[in-house]
Amino acid sequence: MERLLDIEELSKMLGVKRATIYAWIYQHKIPHIKLSKRLVRFRESEILDWIEKQSVSPFLLTTPRKKLKGSFYKLPMQTDYIEKIVKVAKEHVLCRASQN
């Protein structure tokens, strides 16, 4: 049988407060097993997989983080999108230059 972690062990493993883990359980953000109404355990392998899925890869190019409503931010731009903008701008400049 696979090892099951309790709240205290998981708290130490992740370096977060127990209250944070309880909040994640309530929000269904973390895989857990409810053995009874008050007894919750965590499969170590599921937690390790969950941690891997939380990893965020950085983008090469990003827009300035302009604040929108609330705490949301604009998403980073894709490289091909920027290349398209540069191409259109060059065509626009060359077109104006040839008209003069």
Strand count:
3
The major beta sheet can be summarized as: 3 strands, antiparallel
Which segments are poorly predicted (pLDDT under 50) over 5 or more consecutive residues? none
Shape: rod-shaped
C-alpha Rg (nearest Å):
24 Å
Query: What's the total helix number?
Result: 4
Structure write-up:
By secondary structure, this protein is mainly alpha-helical. Helices cover 48% and strands 8% of the residues. It is built from four helices and three strands. Strands 1-3-2 form a three-stranded antiparallel sheet. The longest helix has 21 residues. The N and C termini lie far apart (80 Å). The relative contact order is 0.10. The mean pLDDT is 78.
Name its key features.
100 residues; 4 helices; 3-stranded antiparallel beta sheet; mainly alpha; rod-shaped
Short description:
Helix content is 48%, strand content 8%. It is mainly alpha-helical. The relative contact order is 0.10.
Topology record:
Layout: E1 4-5, H1 7-14, H2 18-26, E2 33-34, E3 40-43, H3 44-53, H4 79-99
Antiparallel strand pairs: 1-3, 2-3
